[in-house]
Amino acid sequence: MTRSPIALSSPLPLSPSSQRSPSSIPSIQLPRIRRLAWLISVIVSTAIPFGMPSVALAQLAQDPSLPVLPVAPSGTPAIKSPRVDESTLPTTVQAEQMTGRPDRILHLDNDVDITRGQTNVTSNTATYQIIDNEVEAHGCVKMNRYGDVYTGDDLKLNMDTNKGFLNNATYKLAVGDGHGDAERVDFEDSDQAKVIVGTYTTCPGTKPDWYLKAKTFDIDTGLNEGVANSGIVYFKGVPILGAPVMSFPLSGERESGVLPPTYGSTNKGGLEIAIPYYFNIAPNRDLTITPNLITQRGLQLSAEARYMGTDYSGLTRIEFLPDDRLAAQEAADLKALNPAIPDNQLPKSDRYSFQSVQAMKLGSGFGLAWNVNYASDISYPDDFSRSITQSSQRLLNRELDLTYGGTYGSVTALASRYQVLQDYDAGQALISRPYDRLPQITYNKGWQDVDGFDFNLNGQYTKFRNSEYDGKAATLTNPGGGERVYINPQVSYPIIAPDYFLTPKLQVDATSYNLTNFVPITQPVTGVTAIPGTAQSFSRVLPTFSLDGGLIFERDATLFGNAVTQTLEPRMFYVRTPYHDQSNYPVFDSGLADFNFAQIFTENSFSGHDRISDANQLTSAITSRFIQANGIERLRLAIGQRFYFSQPLVSLNPPTTTPDTATTPISRSDLLLAAGGQITPTLGLDSNIQYSQSDNQVQRANYSMRWQPAPKEVINLAYRLDRTANALALNNNEILKQVDLSAQWPIYKRWYGVGRINYDLINRQIAEGLIGLEYKADCWVFRIVAQRIPTSTLQATSAIFFQLELNGLSKLGPNPMQALRSSIPGYQNVNSPDTMFNNGNN
């Protein structure tokens, strides 16, 4: 019989139908286990204990920032066709030879092809039971159903129920890169299959570097889930993880279950072993509960919940360690170091921390947000932090915000308190406790282009309180508490043209204080006791006029052989504010503003509202830019300086100094210079210099360079110098002079080196360091990273990370990604993102 297609709708008679071509996806044969490279395997196997009751090899991010929007998973995208009812579809049969009864059974030989809907079977020979709609195929069997490809020796399949089996099989799933082999595959329906005595891997080719071997696999492509029973993960032939039950997502998406354990060792607690359990509650919500055994301290429990929606996002984290076995000794050591440490700040037997960050829209222009942080004692960041940002966090804020924005302006009602975790190391200045704001209400409303005028109204009411000064005589730097009302109306008339701009502006700063237990600086503080409940009220009204103007010239030019547009932008900014003696005024939240190109074009030299600087000054600056036609700024040069027509008199005035009149006369500020730009497509430079003409020296300088010739290739070099008063105060009266070098660079073929060194040139020591290696294979990545981070002025913690990332399965070992990203600007993951919450795990 010649080869011809026929279509059958069992048990109806045969009817002609068009031919359907079989799938051409090739089968993949997996090899026997081969000998492994032992080094990486031994390292990972020491981190992963065997005999865990149940492990779900899920992908999970661990960065504490808020959840981000979902990203597509890595690997092969889903190409599975949607499920349809195939019971009424015809069955198409074709072969070189056909024999049998057309109404009951067909025997097919040579180049057999049977298709019904999304299921296609090809083989050397086959028997088709027409009444039962059942196929038995033998020899080079290949079945493609909904994009999943199975090959083997013998197949039996009911085309109606999709139940059957395949002997000596291999398989390749349509979703993700998963494939493997098996002694037998049992098909339970169109989505579910049981792989018996088989393997699973995402590595390409017939000799995978890693694979999961199990007694049985339950594959459910509808739920995107695989479950291995009595499974063992092999890497380079070495078993590195085993458990009675392992579940994993087929497409690399998140999956609930026990995550692979992580381990570590520190000088603060000894060996640590953590086994997180991950709950994938919904696409926009998850929860992680982690028992963490710290051998020298005890069992720490933590929980982290992340959630987000159209109008809200948030994160909540809790850590709790009962009966810390080292707490008593740490408290005694701290007390011996500094007997003045309050007992309520010392470590207790129960150690804990709490963090909750939330933002939401309430509708009708209203919004609510909070940021709440708390730690049980001052040593918590040193003992339990795993990053420099956490270990150096000494001010924990608790803040609640209610906002409104609408036709009548914007309003923010805020309540804020701080917890201070003092660093009592010798020679370290104590942290001044910020004032609580209970509450602070801010209003802002603007009216634009009212007959050419712009109007703006700012207002703020704040009630300050500082519990450190309760029951004490208040002074200038510790006024204890009080109320402040600030109102700032503004009017300006901007004149803007393509080649120039001019903006005259008039504003009034009106401030009123009502203070309790306040002793002004002009009174002798020694021996003076404030009368509890007494108040002092005073106010200040100051007008400020400013005139901001500039020109913009352009010309065609060339830079490094490229055609560019060069600009020349001179700018002048005049400010006039009359002097008002503020030496008796408190300082709740003000400070001297940072001196830079942005600040010199503002009216006030102070931040906050407690000080309004007197001014009769002119700021002059000139900027030149070299801009390509595509908008890229190839080079930027700038120089600026402020000139004083009268001596500025207002200062912060701490109590140890005399009032404003003792300020040293000056006629001009330090000189500011800046240069930078994207010099070439791969090289970026930036520099800022503050030069003192009176001292004839550089007061502050920052130079930085980034060279990024290709993806995953970056070198950063920076130099920082600071001898200003603020730097001396923060650095124990020492000049800050540091060199910072960081890089990510391919070393040899698949090997990448990563590193950073922040070197203190004054003390001749490494302030912070990181070094590591990454190896990128086709289906896995290995990382080893060592990091040194300061936890206080006299102490530092060293950490080492070993991580093996098996694509499509899991990441084994502590995650160094947060350390790499924060230490190396421009760092890129050598592997592709594969998690929904892309905030530190990729």
From TrEMBL:
- The membrane spanning regions, by residue number, are 36-58
- Tell me the ranges covered by the LptD C-terminal domain, including all copies: 350-751
Q: Matching Pfam families, A to Z?
A: LptD, LptD_2
Residues covered by region (Disordered):
1-26
- Tell me which GO cellular component terms the UniProt record holds: cell outer membrane; transporter complex
Source organism's superkingdom?
A: Bacteria
Location(s), subcellular: Cell outer membrane
Looking at the record, the residues that make up the LPS-assembly protein LptD central domain are: 233-320
| GO biological process, alphabetically ordered | Gram-negative-bacterium-type cell outer membrane assembly; lipopolysaccharide transport
- What are the alphabetically sorted keywords of the record? Cell outer membrane, Membrane, Signal, Transmembrane, Transmembrane helix
Return the similarity comment: Belongs to the LptD family.
Note the subunit structure.
Component of the lipopolysaccharide transport and assembly complex. Interacts with LptE and LptA.
Q: What does this protein do?
A: Together with LptE, is involved in the assembly of lipopolysaccharide (LPS) at the surface of the outer membrane.
**Protein name in UniProt:** LPS-assembly protein LptD
